């Protein structure tokens, strides 16, 4: 315990620099080089005042040219861009959720996809008024999956999962006319509204941005999370490791990257198969190591303890180690750069989804019906590639940290039951957690989420903000690349409790948890929604009254904006470290940072300064406590 030390940003940067030297040797490109070519960025784009949705344009707003050719002003252009950004993010998350529902629809007792959490399946079926009595679990799985798939195009009504939100929240949504209908409809409405000659009124564009976001958070993403749990198991705390040092020089290294666990789950399974391990040995390797990047990594880390090689801006680094036999990707957040980069090494870049096809990759079309064979072929391809490694290029840094991951809502509730002297009737609720918060032992919680962005030193804001929060007795729940930043730094090691204030440290000791709880991938931010809803119901408070805020300090993707919109709409103030291209319209800025509070009791704050951002979050949490008199 005494020798516990966080990995610093500087140490990670030194590793990256060492890897970039290898890159230079083989003539590899890297994001660090491309950023130089792309900066300074276009100011019109940054302010959101460039419109190219019709061919009379592109139009750019300046003081001299305050309207586009059609007459649209900056507010309309910024607002439309914001809504289109949201629609892109919602589509990505939700289509991922749809794929998972499809996988469940094809689950069979003989595999490869089985029902691993029948209890959760039955719970969802009951919520959705689907008869469960006397039904074969696979028949039920298919029936529930069919209904879930129908949620994407339902003719009337709202997303089924919104019934999980507290009554008050649903009332707000109805009043604000942002209650999410069919997922596909919200995306189509967003695209329709932003077609040339449609909506240019900021308020209407923000409302649809929120409704589209909500169809993601309380629709598509929740479908992704819940049915991944049904298929692959609901996460429970499990030990793993994080950072590039998890790769093993003597082994065949397979790196899984992307978001959809359907592929990676099977890759992990076959990589564990004695037959495959023997085959790897026959090729001169000692074994097979599967590690992950981005949210696919979070998925398999949470359920199998598969180590995390890194997050978003570390994806090129895994290839630069010279020891990656195959980087196997599914969808989203995958750099097209991996194609040309892998060609500088022996690495096989394997794409698997029709949704994500890239040049310079080996495409193995992954399909639920042939998944077993596909996964086996990919593992074999990686093993066969081991002998093509150039030992002169191999450098795996030995840096890694221990991490305990797997804090689903179910796991948090169960774990925290051990903290307080909770009565028997309080087990299975969030009441023990609420007691910690009410008594002030824990001041509140921050949901830290989102990406890396080259505009910010990778991981810097994530890690520094987390350190500041836990020192102030604010517990962190984390997902996506933020969670991986924490794990790489060591903040998911239980020993990190020593960095906490006295209250949170005591909770960590009693509950045997790290101060930063890994809640999963980005679709798993829906777990955070469920936790907030449960906390509100168990406390009798509204979500917006809870001393809880959201933060995406280094976000970059459209998905992150969709998330931001559903987190704010759910009643949680959300803090961003990167501007969502709205600075070109004061009306849009006003709405997002203030006006929307009238609809949903929460709003955005954008602050690029680390210290201010941290202080603002603490302030907000303390304000909420003061308002409650706790
Ligand atoms: O969905 S945090 S860089 S990996 S978008 Fe992508 Fe951002 Fe990472 Fe997961 Ni989420
Ligand atoms: Fe220009 Fe209007 Fe066309 Fe946009 S919609 S490109 S502002 S003319």
From TrEMBL:
What Gene3D superfamilies does the annotation carry?
Answer: 1.20.1270.30, 3.40.50.2030
As its record notes, the protein acts as a catalyst of: CO + 2 oxidized [2Fe-2S]-[ferredoxin] + H2O = 2 reduced [2Fe-2S]-[ferredoxin] + CO2 + 2 H(+)
Q: Which InterPro entries match?
A: CO_DH_a-bundle, CODH, HCP/CODH, Prismane-like_a/b-sand, Prismane-like_sf
Molecular function terms in GO for this entry? Answer: anaerobic carbon-monoxide dehydrogenase activity
Q: What is this protein called?
A: Carbon monoxide dehydrogenase
UniProt cross-references to NCBIfam families, sorted A to Z: CO_DH_cata
Q: What class of enzyme is it?
A: oxidoreductase
Q: State the UniProt keywords alphabetically.
A: 4Fe-4S, Iron, Iron-sulfur, Metal-binding, Nickel, Oxidoreductase
The protein's superkingdom reads Bacteria
UniProt cross-references to PANTHER family, sorted A to Z: CARBON MONOXIDE DEHYDROGENASE (PTHR30109:SF4), HYDROXYLAMINE REDUCTASE (PTHR30109)
Supply the EC number(s): 1.2.7.4
Task: Name what cofactor the protein needs.
Answer: [4Fe-4S] cluster
Q: Name one Pfam family in it.
A: Prismane
Gene behind this chain? cooS
What is the organism of origin for this protein?
Muricoprocola aceti
């Amino acid at each position: 315990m005494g020798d516990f030390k966080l990995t610093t940003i500087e140490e990670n940067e030194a590793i990256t620099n060492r890897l970039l030297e290898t890159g230079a040797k083989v003539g590899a490109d890297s994001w660090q080089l491309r950023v130089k070519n792309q900066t300074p960025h276009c100011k019109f784009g940054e302010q959101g005042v460039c419109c190219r949705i019709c061919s009379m344009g592109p139009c750019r707003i300046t003081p001299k040219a305050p309207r586009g050719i059609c007459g649209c002003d900056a507010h309309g252009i910024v607002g439309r861009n914001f809504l289109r950004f949201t629609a892109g993010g919602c589509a990505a998350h939700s289509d991922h959720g749809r794929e998972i529902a499809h996988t469940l629809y094809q689950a069979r007792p003989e595999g490869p996809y089985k029902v691993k959490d029948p209890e959760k399946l039955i719970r969802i079926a009951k919520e959705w008024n689907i008869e469960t009595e006397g039904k074969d679990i696979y028949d039920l799985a298919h029936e529930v999956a069919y209904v879930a798939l129908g949620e994407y195009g339902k003719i009337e009504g709202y997303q089924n999962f919104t019934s999980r939100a507290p009554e008050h929240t649903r009332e707000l949504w109805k009043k604000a006319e942002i209650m999410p209908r069919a997922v596909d409809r919200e995306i189509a409405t967003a695209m329709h509204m932003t077609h040339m000659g449609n909506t240019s009124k900021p308020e209407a564009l923000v409302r649809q941005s929120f409704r589209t976001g909500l169809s993601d958070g309380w629709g598509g993403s929740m479908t992704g999370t819940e049915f991944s749990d049904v298929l692959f198991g609901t996460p429970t705390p499990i030990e793993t490791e994080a950072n590039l040092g998890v790769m093993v020089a003597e082994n065949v290294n397979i790196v899984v990257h992307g978001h959809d666990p359907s592929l990676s789950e099977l890759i992990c399974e076959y990589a564990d198969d004695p037959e495959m391990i023997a085959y790897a040995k026959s090729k001169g390797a000692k074994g097979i190591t599967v590690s992950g990047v981005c949210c696919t990594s979070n998925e398999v880390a949470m359920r199998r303890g598969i180590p995390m090689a890194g997050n978003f801006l570390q994806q090129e680094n895994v290839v630069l180690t010279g020891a990656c036999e195959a980087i196997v990707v599914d969808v989203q957040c995958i750099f097209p750069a991996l194609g040309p980069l892998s060609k500088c090494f022996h690495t096989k870049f394997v794409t698997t989804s029709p949704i994500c096809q890239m040049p310079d990759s080996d495409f193995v079309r992954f399909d639920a019906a042939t998944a077993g064979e596909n996964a086996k072929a990919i593992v074999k391809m990686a093993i066969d590639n081991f002998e093509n490694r150039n030992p002169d290029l191999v450098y795996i840094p030995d840096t890694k940290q221990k991490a305990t991951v797997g804090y689903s809502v179910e796991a948090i509730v169960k774990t925290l039951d051990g903290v307080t002297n909770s009565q028997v009737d309080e087990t299975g609720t969030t009441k023990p957690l609420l007691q910690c918060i009410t008594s002030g032992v824990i001041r509140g919680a921050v949901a830290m989420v989102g990406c890396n962005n080259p505009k910010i030193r990778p991981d810097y804001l994530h890690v520094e903000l987390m350190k500041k929060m836990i020192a102030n007795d604010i517990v962190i729940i984390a997902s996506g690349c933020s969670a991986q930043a924490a794990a790489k730094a060591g903040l998911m090691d239980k020993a990190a409790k020593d960095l906490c204030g006295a209250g949170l440290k005591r909770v960590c000791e009693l509950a045997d948890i790290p101060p930063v709880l890994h809640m999963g991938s980005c679709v798993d931010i829906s777990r955070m929604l469920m936790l907030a809803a449960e906390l509100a119901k168990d406390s009798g408070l509204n979500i917006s009254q809870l001393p809880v805020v959201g933060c995406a300090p280094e976000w970059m993707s459209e998905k992150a904006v969709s998330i931001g919109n559903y987190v704010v709409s759910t009643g949680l103030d959300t803090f961003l470290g990167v501007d969502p291209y709205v600075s070109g319209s004061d009306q849009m800025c006003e709405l997002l940072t203030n006006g929307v509070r009238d609809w949903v009791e929460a709003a955005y704050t954008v602050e690029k300064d680390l210290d201010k951002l941290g202080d603002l979050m603490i302030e907000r949490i303390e304000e909420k406590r003061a308002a409650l008199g706790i």
